[in-house]
Amino acid sequence: MIRKPDFLIIGSGIAGLSYALKVAAYGKVCMITKASEDESNTKYAQGGIAAVMHSPDSYQKHIQDTLIAGDGICDEEVVRMVITESTERIHELIKWGAKFDKTVSGEYDLAKEGGHSEHRILHHKDNTGFEIERALLVEIHKHPNIEILDHHFAIDILTQHHKGVVVNSRTPDITCYGAYVLNLHTDKVEKILAKTILMATGGAGNVYATTTNPTIATGDGVAMIYRAKGKVEGMEFYQFHPTSLYNPTENPSFLVSEAVRGFGAILKTIDGKEFMQKYDERGSLAPRDIVARAIDNEMKTRGDDYVYLDCRHLDKEELLKHFPNIYQKCLSVGIDMMKDFIPVVPAAHYMCGGIKVDKKGRSSIKRLYAVGECSSTGLHGANRLASNSLLEAVVYSHHAANDAIEQIKIIPQLEDNAIPDWNAEGTNYPEEMVLLIQSLREVQAIMTNYVGIVRSNLRLQRAFDRLEILYKENEALFLKTTVSTKLCELRNLINVAYIIIKHARERKESRGLHYTVNYPKESKKSN
Ligand code: FAD
Ligand code: SIN
Known about the structure:
The chain is α/β, with parallel strands linked by helices. The chain is about 35% helix and about 15% strand. It has a five-stranded parallel β-sheet, covered by helices on one side. The chain has a four-stranded antiparallel β-sheet with strand order 11-14-13-12, covered by helices on one side. It is globular, with a radius of gyration of 22 Å.
Protein backbone atom coordinates (compact mmCIF):
# COMPACT_ATOMS: atom_id res chain seq x y z
CA MET A 1 0.00 0.00 0.00
CA ILE A 2 1.30 3.44 -0.93
CA ARG A 3 0.52 6.17 1.58
CA LYS A 4 -1.02 9.25 -0.04
CA PRO A 5 -1.79 11.83 2.67
CA ASP A 6 -2.83 15.40 1.98
CA PHE A 7 -0.07 16.61 4.26
CA LEU A 8 3.26 14.83 4.61
CA ILE A 9 5.33 16.14 7.52
CA ILE A 10 8.98 15.22 7.90
CA GLY A 11 10.02 15.74 11.53
CA SER A 12 8.29 15.71 14.90
CA GLY A 13 9.81 18.67 16.74
CA ILE A 14 7.90 21.84 17.61
CA ALA A 15 7.65 22.83 13.92
CA GLY A 16 6.19 19.55 12.66
CA LEU A 17 3.91 19.00 15.64
CA SER A 18 2.39 22.48 15.78
CA TYR A 19 1.81 22.45 12.00
CA ALA A 20 0.14 19.02 12.22
CA LEU A 21 -2.28 20.26 14.87
CA LYS A 22 -3.33 23.09 12.57
CA VAL A 23 -3.81 21.18 9.32
CA ALA A 24 -5.32 17.98 10.71
CA ALA A 25 -8.89 19.31 10.62
CA TYR A 26 -8.60 19.72 6.84
CA GLY A 27 -7.15 16.45 5.59
CA LYS A 28 -5.10 13.32 6.23
CA VAL A 29 -1.75 13.91 7.89
CA CYS A 30 1.21 11.55 7.79
CA MET A 31 4.12 12.56 10.01
CA ILE A 32 7.36 10.65 9.71
CA THR A 33 10.25 10.92 12.11
CA LYS A 34 13.56 9.12 12.03
CA ALA A 35 13.81 8.18 15.71
CA SER A 36 11.23 7.92 18.49
CA GLU A 37 8.43 10.47 18.16
CA ASP A 38 9.76 12.77 20.91
CA GLU A 39 13.44 12.80 19.90
CA SER A 40 14.33 16.23 18.55
CA ASN A 41 16.24 19.39 19.34
CA THR A 42 12.98 20.71 20.73
CA LYS A 43 13.03 18.17 23.55
CA TYR A 44 16.32 19.60 24.88
CA ALA A 45 15.45 23.30 24.73
CA GLN A 46 16.18 24.72 28.15
CA GLY A 47 15.93 28.50 28.43
CA GLY A 48 12.49 28.99 26.93
CA ILE A 49 10.53 30.85 24.31
CA ALA A 50 10.78 34.60 23.80
CA ALA A 51 7.56 36.61 23.59
CA VAL A 52 6.21 40.00 24.55
CA MET A 53 3.70 39.46 27.34
CA HIS A 54 3.28 42.85 29.07
CA SER A 55 4.93 46.18 29.88
CA PRO A 56 7.58 47.36 30.43
CA ASP A 57 8.36 45.11 27.47
CA SER A 58 7.06 46.06 24.03
CA TYR A 59 7.08 44.62 20.52
CA GLN A 60 9.38 47.45 19.50
CA LYS A 61 11.99 46.51 22.10
CA HIS A 62 11.94 42.83 21.12
CA ILE A 63 12.15 43.79 17.43
CA GLN A 64 15.11 46.06 18.15
CA ASP A 65 16.96 43.36 20.13
CA THR A 66 16.41 40.84 17.32
CA LEU A 67 17.70 43.28 14.71
CA ILE A 68 20.78 44.13 16.77
CA ALA A 69 21.66 40.45 17.30
CA GLY A 70 21.16 39.79 13.57
CA ASP A 71 23.94 42.30 12.79
CA GLY A 72 22.24 44.26 10.04
CA ILE A 73 20.94 41.52 7.75
CA CYS A 74 17.63 40.41 9.31
CA ASP A 75 14.56 40.84 7.13
CA GLU A 76 12.89 43.62 9.11
CA GLU A 77 9.39 42.81 7.86
CA VAL A 78 9.81 39.21 8.98
CA VAL A 79 11.13 40.31 12.38
CA ARG A 80 8.11 42.56 12.83
CA MET A 81 5.71 39.82 11.76
CA VAL A 82 7.17 37.16 14.07
CA ILE A 83 7.45 39.38 17.14
CA THR A 84 4.01 40.96 16.84
CA GLU A 85 2.45 37.50 16.58
CA SER A 86 4.41 36.14 19.56
CA THR A 87 1.76 36.74 22.23
CA GLU A 88 -0.98 35.02 20.24
CA ARG A 89 1.14 31.94 19.51
CA ILE A 90 2.10 31.63 23.20
CA HIS A 91 -1.57 31.63 24.18
CA GLU A 92 -2.11 28.87 21.65
CA LEU A 93 0.70 26.76 23.15
CA ILE A 94 -0.90 27.30 26.57
CA LYS A 95 -4.27 26.27 25.13
CA TRP A 96 -2.65 23.07 23.85
CA GLY A 97 -1.49 22.34 27.39
CA ALA A 98 2.07 23.69 27.65
CA LYS A 99 2.79 24.94 31.15
CA PHE A 100 5.04 27.91 31.75
CA ASP A 101 6.31 28.89 35.21
CA LYS A 102 4.55 31.66 37.11
CA THR A 103 5.58 33.90 39.98
CA VAL A 104 3.82 33.79 43.35
CA SER A 105 1.63 36.67 42.19
CA GLY A 106 0.39 34.55 39.28
CA GLU A 107 2.18 36.34 36.44
CA TYR A 108 4.43 34.52 34.00
CA ASP A 109 7.94 34.33 35.41
CA LEU A 110 9.83 35.93 32.54
CA ALA A 111 13.57 35.28 32.32
CA LYS A 112 16.30 37.21 30.55
CA GLU A 113 18.99 35.92 28.18
CA GLY A 114 21.89 37.37 26.20
CA GLY A 115 20.99 40.26 23.89
CA HIS A 116 17.51 40.80 25.41
CA SER A 117 16.83 44.25 26.87
CA GLU A 118 13.87 42.97 28.92
CA HIS A 119 12.76 39.90 30.81
CA ARG A 120 10.66 38.10 28.18
CA ILE A 121 11.52 34.39 28.15
CA LEU A 122 8.65 32.10 29.11
CA HIS A 123 10.00 28.87 30.50
CA HIS A 124 9.19 25.67 32.27
CA LYS A 125 11.98 25.33 34.82
CA ASP A 126 15.08 24.54 32.72
CA ASN A 127 13.38 22.03 30.43
CA THR A 128 10.95 24.14 28.42
CA GLY A 129 11.33 22.16 25.20
CA PHE A 130 10.53 18.90 26.91
CA GLU A 131 7.33 20.41 28.31
CA ILE A 132 6.25 21.86 24.95
CA GLU A 133 6.98 18.58 23.13
CA ARG A 134 5.03 16.66 25.78
CA ALA A 135 1.99 18.90 25.52
CA LEU A 136 1.93 18.86 21.72
CA LEU A 137 2.28 15.08 21.54
CA VAL A 138 -0.68 14.64 23.90
CA GLU A 139 -2.80 16.73 21.51
CA ILE A 140 -1.44 14.95 18.44
CA HIS A 141 -2.35 11.52 19.83
CA LYS A 142 -5.95 12.63 20.26
CA HIS A 143 -6.34 13.46 16.58
CA PRO A 144 -7.79 10.74 14.34
CA ASN A 145 -6.44 12.38 11.16
CA ILE A 146 -2.79 12.25 12.22
CA GLU A 147 -0.68 9.16 11.66
CA ILE A 148 2.83 9.22 13.14
CA LEU A 149 5.40 6.85 11.69
CA ASP A 150 8.38 6.71 14.02
CA HIS A 151 11.74 5.28 12.92
CA HIS A 152 11.01 6.29 9.33
CA PHE A 153 13.94 8.07 7.69
CA ALA A 154 13.38 10.41 4.74
CA ILE A 155 16.16 9.73 2.24
CA ASP A 156 15.25 12.17 -0.52
CA ILE A 157 12.31 14.22 -1.68
CA LEU A 158 10.63 13.27 -4.93
CA THR A 159 10.55 15.79 -7.77
CA GLN A 160 9.89 15.58 -11.49
CA HIS A 161 13.64 15.26 -11.97
CA HIS A 162 13.82 11.76 -10.53
CA LYS A 163 14.48 9.08 -13.08
CA GLY A 164 11.23 7.52 -14.30
CA VAL A 165 8.83 10.12 -12.90
CA VAL A 166 5.77 10.60 -15.12
CA VAL A 167 3.94 13.82 -14.28
CA ASN A 168 2.31 16.54 -16.29
CA SER A 169 4.18 19.62 -15.19
CA ARG A 170 3.23 22.72 -17.15
CA THR A 171 5.81 24.94 -15.46
CA PRO A 172 9.58 24.72 -15.40
CA ASP A 173 9.45 25.00 -11.60
CA ILE A 174 10.67 22.12 -9.49
CA THR A 175 7.73 20.45 -7.79
CA CYS A 176 7.82 18.04 -4.85
CA TYR A 177 5.48 15.05 -4.87
CA GLY A 178 6.55 13.26 -1.71
CA ALA A 179 9.57 11.42 -0.39
CA TYR A 180 11.45 8.15 -0.41
CA VAL A 181 11.43 6.92 3.14
CA LEU A 182 13.43 4.14 4.76
CA ASN A 183 11.19 2.21 7.13
CA LEU A 184 13.63 1.25 9.88
CA HIS A 185 11.24 -1.38 11.25
CA THR A 186 11.42 -3.34 7.98
CA ASP A 187 14.57 -1.92 6.33
CA LYS A 188 12.51 -1.33 3.17
CA VAL A 189 12.33 1.92 1.22
CA GLU A 190 8.75 3.17 0.75
CA LYS A 191 7.50 6.06 -1.32
CA ILE A 192 5.00 8.43 0.26
CA LEU A 193 3.10 10.68 -2.15
CA ALA A 194 1.44 13.82 -0.82
CA LYS A 195 -0.28 16.97 -2.00
CA THR A 196 1.92 19.11 0.24
CA ILE A 197 5.14 18.36 2.08
CA LEU A 198 6.52 20.08 5.17
CA MET A 199 10.22 19.87 5.90
CA ALA A 200 10.67 20.21 9.67
CA THR A 201 13.91 18.30 10.14
CA GLY A 202 15.71 20.69 12.51
CA GLY A 203 19.41 21.53 12.67
CA ALA A 204 22.78 20.01 11.85
CA GLY A 205 24.92 20.41 14.98
CA ASN A 206 26.60 17.06 14.33
CA VAL A 207 28.53 18.57 11.46
CA TYR A 208 30.85 19.78 14.24
CA ALA A 209 32.74 17.65 16.77
CA THR A 210 31.21 19.33 19.82
CA THR A 211 27.50 20.11 19.80
CA THR A 212 24.57 20.56 22.14
CA ASN A 213 22.33 18.86 19.55
CA PRO A 214 21.18 15.26 19.86
CA THR A 215 22.56 12.77 17.32
CA ILE A 216 19.48 13.13 15.06
CA ALA A 217 20.57 16.67 14.10
CA THR A 218 22.36 15.89 10.84
CA GLY A 219 20.95 18.53 8.47
CA ASP A 220 18.92 16.00 6.46
CA GLY A 221 16.28 18.49 5.29
CA VAL A 222 18.77 21.06 4.02
CA ALA A 223 20.77 18.35 2.25
CA MET A 224 17.65 16.86 0.63
CA ILE A 225 16.52 20.26 -0.65
CA TYR A 226 20.00 21.15 -1.88
CA ARG A 227 20.23 17.87 -3.81
CA ALA A 228 16.80 18.61 -5.31
CA LYS A 229 18.13 22.02 -6.44
CA GLY A 230 16.04 24.05 -4.01
CA LYS A 231 17.36 27.32 -2.54
CA VAL A 232 19.41 27.23 0.64
CA GLU A 233 20.88 30.40 2.20
CA GLY A 234 22.82 31.77 5.16
CA MET A 235 24.55 28.53 6.11
CA GLU A 236 27.76 30.37 7.03
CA PHE A 237 25.94 31.52 10.17
CA TYR A 238 26.27 28.54 12.48
CA GLN A 239 25.66 29.56 16.06
CA PHE A 240 27.92 28.26 18.82
CA HIS A 241 26.40 28.36 22.28
CA PRO A 242 29.00 29.83 24.64
CA THR A 243 28.37 27.56 27.59
CA SER A 244 28.17 23.81 27.22
CA LEU A 245 29.46 21.74 30.12
CA TYR A 246 33.10 20.77 29.58
CA ASN A 247 33.04 16.99 29.83
CA PRO A 248 35.14 15.67 26.92
CA THR A 249 33.79 12.11 26.98
CA GLU A 250 30.15 13.18 26.70
CA ASN A 251 28.31 13.51 23.37
CA PRO A 252 26.13 15.52 22.88
CA SER A 253 27.50 18.20 25.16
CA PHE A 254 25.18 19.17 27.97
CA LEU A 255 23.97 22.75 27.72
CA VAL A 256 24.25 25.18 30.62
CA SER A 257 21.46 27.55 29.67
CA GLU A 258 22.08 31.18 28.92
CA ALA A 259 19.32 31.82 31.43
CA VAL A 260 21.88 30.95 34.13
CA ARG A 261 23.89 33.99 33.02
CA GLY A 262 20.62 35.91 32.78
CA PHE A 263 20.21 35.00 36.42
CA GLY A 264 23.56 36.55 37.29
CA ALA A 265 26.23 33.89 36.68
CA ILE A 266 29.57 35.30 35.49
CA LEU A 267 32.18 33.98 33.08
CA LYS A 268 35.75 33.78 34.40
CA THR A 269 39.06 32.41 33.22
CA ILE A 270 40.44 29.49 35.21
CA ASP A 271 42.44 31.82 37.44
CA GLY A 272 39.09 33.27 38.55
CA LYS A 273 39.24 36.58 36.64
CA GLU A 274 36.29 38.11 34.79
CA PHE A 275 37.07 38.77 31.13
CA MET A 276 33.91 39.63 29.20
CA GLN A 277 34.14 43.40 29.82
CA LYS A 278 37.31 43.38 27.70
CA TYR A 279 35.17 42.34 24.75
CA ASP A 280 31.77 43.96 25.23
CA GLU A 281 30.16 46.37 27.67
CA ARG A 282 27.25 43.95 28.13
CA GLY A 283 29.68 41.51 29.75
CA SER A 284 28.57 37.88 30.22
CA LEU A 285 25.18 38.69 28.69
CA ALA A 286 26.40 40.07 25.37
CA PRO A 287 24.94 38.35 22.27
CA ARG A 288 26.13 34.80 21.72
CA ASP A 289 28.49 35.34 18.83
CA ILE A 290 30.48 37.84 20.88
CA VAL A 291 30.58 35.69 24.03
CA ALA A 292 31.51 32.50 22.15
CA ARG A 293 34.29 34.31 20.28
CA ALA A 294 35.60 35.87 23.50
CA ILE A 295 35.72 32.46 25.21
CA ASP A 296 37.42 30.94 22.16
CA ASN A 297 40.00 33.73 22.22
CA GLU A 298 40.67 33.39 25.97
CA MET A 299 41.07 29.61 25.64
CA LYS A 300 43.42 29.93 22.66
CA THR A 301 45.60 32.74 24.01
CA ARG A 302 45.86 31.24 27.51
CA GLY A 303 46.12 27.65 26.29
CA ASP A 304 43.19 26.55 28.48
CA ASP A 305 40.67 23.84 27.61
CA TYR A 306 37.69 25.71 29.11
CA VAL A 307 36.57 28.76 31.04
CA TYR A 308 34.46 28.87 34.18
CA LEU A 309 30.92 29.93 34.90
CA ASP A 310 30.62 31.24 38.44
CA CYS A 311 27.22 30.84 40.16
CA ARG A 312 28.47 30.74 43.73
CA HIS A 313 27.15 34.20 44.64
CA LEU A 314 23.59 33.42 43.52
CA ASP A 315 20.60 32.67 45.75
CA LYS A 316 20.65 28.91 46.25
CA GLU A 317 16.94 28.40 46.69
CA GLU A 318 16.05 30.43 43.60
CA LEU A 319 18.79 28.78 41.55
CA LEU A 320 17.51 25.33 42.46
CA LYS A 321 13.95 26.32 41.66
CA HIS A 322 14.84 27.64 38.21
CA PHE A 323 17.54 25.19 37.16
CA PRO A 324 16.91 21.83 38.84
CA ASN A 325 18.09 19.76 35.86
CA ILE A 326 21.28 21.73 35.30
CA TYR A 327 22.01 21.50 39.03
CA GLN A 328 21.49 17.72 39.04
CA LYS A 329 23.53 17.23 35.89
CA CYS A 330 26.46 19.17 37.32
CA LEU A 331 26.21 17.18 40.57
CA SER A 332 26.31 13.94 38.57
CA VAL A 333 29.77 14.89 37.30
CA GLY A 334 30.99 16.05 40.71
CA ILE A 335 30.25 19.78 40.43
CA ASP A 336 28.10 21.53 43.01
CA MET A 337 27.26 24.77 41.22
CA MET A 338 26.66 26.54 44.55
CA LYS A 339 30.21 25.82 45.67
CA ASP A 340 32.25 25.05 42.55
CA PHE A 341 32.96 26.81 39.27
CA ILE A 342 31.34 25.10 36.26
CA PRO A 343 33.84 24.41 33.43
CA VAL A 344 32.26 25.41 30.10
CA VAL A 345 33.17 25.55 26.41
CA PRO A 346 31.35 26.76 23.29
CA ALA A 347 29.51 24.08 21.27
CA ALA A 348 27.73 24.09 17.90
CA HIS A 349 24.13 24.84 18.72
CA TYR A 350 21.89 26.37 16.08
CA MET A 351 21.74 26.61 12.29
CA CYS A 352 20.66 30.17 11.49
CA GLY A 353 20.54 29.60 7.73
CA GLY A 354 18.73 26.84 5.89
CA ILE A 355 16.02 26.27 3.30
CA LYS A 356 14.99 29.67 1.98
CA VAL A 357 11.30 30.35 2.57
CA ASP A 358 8.88 33.24 2.12
CA LYS A 359 6.53 34.58 4.79
CA LYS A 360 4.18 31.65 4.27
CA GLY A 361 6.95 29.12 4.80
CA ARG A 362 7.00 28.25 1.08
CA SER A 363 10.34 27.05 -0.26
CA SER A 364 11.59 27.57 -3.81
CA ILE A 365 10.22 24.06 -4.60
CA LYS A 366 6.50 23.96 -5.33
CA ARG A 367 4.27 22.23 -2.72
CA LEU A 368 7.17 22.10 -0.29
CA TYR A 369 7.18 24.15 2.91
CA ALA A 370 9.99 24.38 5.44
CA VAL A 371 9.53 25.48 9.04
CA GLY A 372 11.70 25.59 12.15
CA GLU A 373 15.46 25.25 12.38
CA CYS A 374 15.88 23.76 8.89
CA SER A 375 14.41 26.92 7.33
CA SER A 376 15.81 30.37 6.69
CA THR A 377 13.10 32.98 7.12
CA GLY A 378 15.18 36.14 7.54
CA LEU A 379 14.34 36.43 11.26
CA HIS A 380 17.81 35.65 12.58
CA GLY A 381 20.02 37.42 10.04
CA ALA A 382 23.66 36.80 10.92
CA ASN A 383 22.98 35.68 14.50
CA ARG A 384 19.91 34.38 16.31
CA LEU A 385 18.71 36.11 19.45
CA ALA A 386 18.36 33.56 22.27
CA SER A 387 14.98 31.81 22.54
CA ASN A 388 13.72 33.22 19.24
CA SER A 389 13.81 29.83 17.50
CA LEU A 390 10.93 28.10 19.25
CA LEU A 391 8.95 31.28 18.59
CA GLU A 392 9.89 31.34 14.91
CA ALA A 393 8.79 27.71 14.55
CA VAL A 394 5.28 28.29 15.94
CA VAL A 395 4.72 31.50 13.99
CA TYR A 396 5.81 29.94 10.70
CA SER A 397 3.94 26.69 11.23
CA HIS A 398 0.83 28.84 11.59
CA HIS A 399 1.48 30.66 8.31
CA ALA A 400 2.53 27.53 6.40
CA ALA A 401 -0.52 25.62 7.68
CA ASN A 402 -2.91 28.36 6.52
CA ASP A 403 -1.37 28.27 3.06
CA ALA A 404 -1.22 24.47 2.77
CA ILE A 405 -4.88 24.15 3.84
CA GLU A 406 -5.84 26.26 0.80
CA GLN A 407 -3.41 24.49 -1.52
CA ILE A 408 -4.70 20.97 -0.93
CA LYS A 409 -8.10 22.03 -2.27
CA ILE A 410 -6.63 22.61 -5.73
CA ILE A 411 -3.73 20.16 -5.91
CA PRO A 412 -4.64 16.77 -7.42
CA GLN A 413 -3.19 13.61 -5.87
CA LEU A 414 -0.79 11.59 -8.04
CA GLU A 415 -1.44 8.12 -9.41
CA ASP A 416 0.50 5.42 -7.53
CA ASN A 417 2.61 4.55 -10.55
CA ALA A 418 3.52 8.13 -11.51
CA ILE A 419 6.59 7.80 -9.33
CA PRO A 420 8.86 4.77 -9.65
CA ASP A 421 9.80 2.67 -6.65
CA TRP A 422 13.17 3.25 -5.02
CA ASN A 423 15.81 2.00 -7.37
CA ALA A 424 18.04 -0.05 -5.13
CA GLU A 425 21.21 0.02 -7.17
CA GLY A 426 23.39 -0.60 -4.17
CA THR A 427 22.93 -4.06 -2.75
CA ASN A 428 26.02 -4.54 -0.60
CA TYR A 429 26.20 -3.86 3.09
CA PRO A 430 29.26 -1.80 3.98
CA GLU A 431 31.88 -4.40 4.88
CA GLU A 432 33.22 -2.19 7.62
CA MET A 433 31.33 0.36 9.69
CA VAL A 434 34.70 1.94 10.35
CA LEU A 435 34.49 3.51 6.88
CA LEU A 436 31.45 5.52 7.91
CA ILE A 437 32.60 6.28 11.43
CA GLN A 438 36.03 7.48 10.35
CA SER A 439 34.59 9.66 7.57
CA LEU A 440 32.16 11.22 10.04
CA ARG A 441 35.01 12.05 12.42
CA GLU A 442 36.95 13.57 9.57
CA VAL A 443 34.04 15.81 8.54
CA GLN A 444 33.61 16.95 12.14
CA ALA A 445 37.33 17.61 12.57
CA ILE A 446 37.54 19.58 9.32
CA MET A 447 34.54 21.70 10.28
CA THR A 448 35.69 22.29 13.86
CA ASN A 449 39.27 23.18 13.02
CA TYR A 450 38.76 25.16 9.83
CA VAL A 451 35.14 26.35 9.75
CA GLY A 452 34.38 26.97 13.45
CA ILE A 453 34.08 30.15 15.49
CA VAL A 454 37.03 31.88 13.80
CA ARG A 455 37.75 31.33 10.10
CA SER A 456 40.25 32.42 7.46
CA ASN A 457 40.49 32.15 3.67
CA LEU A 458 43.27 29.60 4.01
CA ARG A 459 41.33 27.43 6.48
CA LEU A 460 38.23 27.52 4.29
CA GLN A 461 40.21 26.54 1.21
CA ARG A 462 41.79 23.68 3.10
CA ALA A 463 38.41 22.54 4.43
CA PHE A 464 36.99 22.61 0.91
CA ASP A 465 39.81 20.51 -0.53
CA ARG A 466 39.68 17.92 2.26
CA LEU A 467 35.91 17.65 2.09
CA GLU A 468 35.95 16.98 -1.62
CA ILE A 469 37.84 13.73 -1.02
CA LEU A 470 35.26 12.62 1.54
CA TYR A 471 32.42 13.61 -0.78
CA LYS A 472 33.72 11.47 -3.64
CA GLU A 473 34.39 8.49 -1.39
CA ASN A 474 30.95 8.66 0.16
CA GLU A 475 29.05 9.09 -3.11
CA ALA A 476 30.79 5.97 -4.44
CA LEU A 477 29.87 4.09 -1.28
CA PHE A 478 26.27 5.34 -1.47
CA LEU A 479 25.86 3.95 -4.98
CA LYS A 480 27.04 0.45 -4.21
CA THR A 481 25.71 0.05 -0.67
CA THR A 482 22.29 -0.74 0.79
CA VAL A 483 20.84 2.45 2.27
CA SER A 484 21.05 2.84 6.02
CA THR A 485 20.51 5.73 8.41
CA LYS A 486 24.23 6.06 9.13
CA LEU A 487 25.16 6.16 5.46
CA CYS A 488 22.44 8.69 4.60
CA GLU A 489 23.28 10.88 7.59
CA LEU A 490 26.93 10.94 6.61
CA ARG A 491 25.97 11.86 3.05
CA ASN A 492 23.78 14.67 4.40
CA LEU A 493 26.45 15.97 6.78
CA ILE A 494 28.97 16.07 3.96
CA ASN A 495 26.46 18.03 1.84
CA VAL A 496 25.76 20.43 4.70
CA ALA A 497 29.47 20.90 5.43
CA TYR A 498 30.00 21.68 1.75
CA ILE A 499 27.24 24.33 1.78
CA ILE A 500 28.55 25.95 4.99
CA ILE A 501 32.04 26.20 3.50
CA LYS A 502 30.69 27.46 0.16
CA HIS A 503 28.60 30.19 1.79
CA ALA A 504 31.45 31.12 4.16
CA ARG A 505 33.82 31.54 1.22
CA GLU A 506 31.31 33.72 -0.60
CA ARG A 507 30.96 36.13 2.33
CA LYS A 508 33.88 38.52 2.10
CA GLU A 509 33.38 40.18 5.48
CA SER A 510 33.00 39.37 9.16
CA ARG A 511 29.37 39.58 10.18
CA GLY A 512 27.52 38.11 13.12
CA LEU A 513 28.45 34.47 13.51
CA HIS A 514 30.72 34.46 10.48
CA TYR A 515 34.05 35.77 11.71
CA THR A 516 37.13 35.65 9.53
CA VAL A 517 40.60 36.96 10.32
CA ASN A 518 40.93 38.16 6.73
CA TYR A 519 38.14 40.71 7.22
CA PRO A 520 38.29 41.56 10.95
CA LYS A 521 35.60 43.62 12.63
CA GLU A 522 35.93 45.94 15.61
CA SER A 523 34.24 44.64 18.77
CA LYS A 524 32.10 46.90 20.96
CA LYS A 525 34.39 47.55 23.92
CA SER A 526 33.56 49.62 26.94
CA ASN A 527 36.72 51.72 26.61
P1 FAD B 1 13.64 19.54 15.90
O1 FAD B 1 12.99 19.82 17.19
O2 FAD B 1 15.08 19.29 15.91
O3 FAD B 1 12.90 18.35 15.19
C1 FAD B 1 13.42 17.77 14.02
C2 FAD B 1 12.68 16.49 13.75
O4 FAD B 1 12.98 16.01 12.46
C3 FAD B 1 13.04 15.37 14.72
O5 FAD B 1 11.85 14.70 15.05
C4 FAD B 1 13.94 14.47 13.87
O6 FAD B 1 13.94 13.13 14.29
C5 FAD B 1 13.28 14.61 12.52
N1 FAD B 1 14.12 14.31 11.37
C6 FAD B 1 15.32 14.87 11.04
N2 FAD B 1 15.78 14.31 9.89
C7 FAD B 1 14.86 13.40 9.48
C8 FAD B 1 14.77 12.52 8.39
N3 FAD B 1 15.72 12.42 7.44
N4 FAD B 1 13.68 11.72 8.29
C9 FAD B 1 12.70 11.75 9.23
N5 FAD B 1 12.75 12.58 10.31
C10 FAD B 1 13.80 13.40 10.42
N6 FAD B 1 15.56 27.42 21.18
C11 FAD B 1 14.83 28.32 21.86
O7 FAD B 1 14.08 29.11 21.25
N7 FAD B 1 14.87 28.35 23.22
C12 FAD B 1 15.65 27.52 23.94
O8 FAD B 1 15.64 27.57 25.16
C13 FAD B 1 16.47 26.59 23.25
N8 FAD B 1 17.29 25.76 23.93
C14 FAD B 1 17.97 24.80 23.25
C15 FAD B 1 18.74 23.88 23.95
C16 FAD B 1 19.37 22.85 23.30
C17 FAD B 1 20.20 21.86 24.07
C18 FAD B 1 19.25 22.74 21.89
C19 FAD B 1 19.91 21.61 21.15
C20 FAD B 1 18.52 23.66 21.18
C21 FAD B 1 17.87 24.70 21.85
N9 FAD B 1 17.10 25.64 21.16
C22 FAD B 1 16.37 26.56 21.85
C23 FAD B 1 16.90 25.54 19.71
C24 FAD B 1 15.54 24.87 19.47
O9 FAD B 1 15.36 23.83 20.40
C25 FAD B 1 15.44 24.31 18.08
O10 FAD B 1 15.84 25.24 17.14
C26 FAD B 1 14.00 23.91 17.76
O11 FAD B 1 13.53 23.07 18.78
C27 FAD B 1 13.94 23.23 16.43
O12 FAD B 1 12.67 22.70 16.26
P2 FAD B 1 12.33 21.96 14.90
O13 FAD B 1 10.95 21.45 15.03
O14 FAD B 1 12.67 22.83 13.76
O15 FAD B 1 13.38 20.75 14.84
C1 SIN C 1 19.65 28.34 26.36
O1 SIN C 1 18.86 27.95 27.21
O2 SIN C 1 20.70 28.93 26.61
C2 SIN C 1 19.34 28.09 24.94
C3 SIN C 1 18.48 29.14 24.43
C4 SIN C 1 18.47 29.13 22.94
O3 SIN C 1 19.25 28.44 22.29
O4 SIN C 1 17.67 29.91 22.40
